[in-house]
Each structure stands twice: as structure tokens, then as C-alpha cells.
Predict the structure.
Amino acid sequence: MRARARLERPVSGSGWPLVIELPPLGALRTSPGTARAHVRAVVAAWRLGDDMAEAAVVVTSELVTNAVQASTGPDGRPLYLNGRMAGVWVKLFSDGTRLVVEVWDQAPGYPQPRSAGADNTDGRGLRLVEGLTGKQWGWEPARGGRAVKCVWAMVRPAAAEMIAQPGGAGFPEATTAPSGVADTNKVRAAAVTRRSGAIGSPRLLEATGR
């Protein structure tokens, strides 16, 4: 199968005045849920809209779930590096219209979308990300520091509107969360039907990125 061309990471330049980073996460089953709550609160505070929030939550959940899976050993336990649990880091960037989600991890390998059969529990996550972002996602190796790679995805308003279309381009008809990881299926279903208001008091979050 022909390899997918790697897109350039969009935040390598300027033009992203809103930046925030979630405190480090471990390679744990609870990490996707923690990341989802953080992303929902931040997108609400940045006033990017409900559709953007729902799309960003699903995209983040998929990317963090993948990072946790990649940082988990065959025995189902987190990998340890130099005596410390493998870490996962989530950063958000916005210019007030678009939103970029970055997930950094310490796991070997790289993300690659896979075809999944109707009964296959794996291989759907990155296809879902592709649908919700219009294929605006990619990865790159880290240049020094604690992480090994960064997987990013950009959510735009037009793509975010697909979150309200069950069975649309962004949602495979049947999806099942991988065993041993947070139930992303429930997140996808909730994203289709949920229309909640903004969470928390709207306020500008100051940049905390490196």
C-alpha cells in the first residue's frame, strides 16, 4: 500500500496566539478521559463553538488512546523508561478559528491508518481523525527532549460540522473501542447527539507552551 505523504506540522511557525499544555499524562487507561475533559474546557474558554469542541474531543480521544496503546507492553502494563512510566503530553493551539491538537509520546513506531473489517476492533481511530479533519493530520519525530514523536491534527469549522452528521464522512457506521483502553465508542456516540452549552466561565487562557 502506498505510504501517505507526511504533512508539515502547522504550529512550527507563528500565528497561533492561543496555546496551552495539559500536565503530563501517563500511559494509563484514564488518560484519554482526562484529556477529553481538558480539551472540552479549553475549547469552551476559547469560545470556539460547540461543534468545534465535540470534534476536538473525539480527535483528542483517538490520538491519546493511540499513544497509550503504543506505550503499553504486551502484558497490558505501561512501558517504563529509565525507571519512569512512559509519558503522554497534549498541547492545544488556536488562532481563534482553527484548532490544532498535538499529542506527544515516548513510544517507538509511527501512526499509520489501517483498513478495518466490520468485526475488527482496531484500525478505525485514525480513519475517524481523517474524516473529522479533512485529512489534516500528521506526525513528526521529536527533535530532542523527552518525547519521541508528535502526532497532530487540525480541526477547522467546516470539518467540525460533520460531528452532527451520524454516518457521515467523519463517522464509520460501526466502531468499537479497543480492549483495555477508555471507551471511545461512547465518546463518539455522545458527540453525535450532545449539544451542551459552554463549560466554565469564558476567559482567555494564557500561553503556557514551551
Summary: Residues 169-210 have pLDDT under 50 and may be disordered. The chain has one domain: 18-193. The longest strand covers residues 87-94.
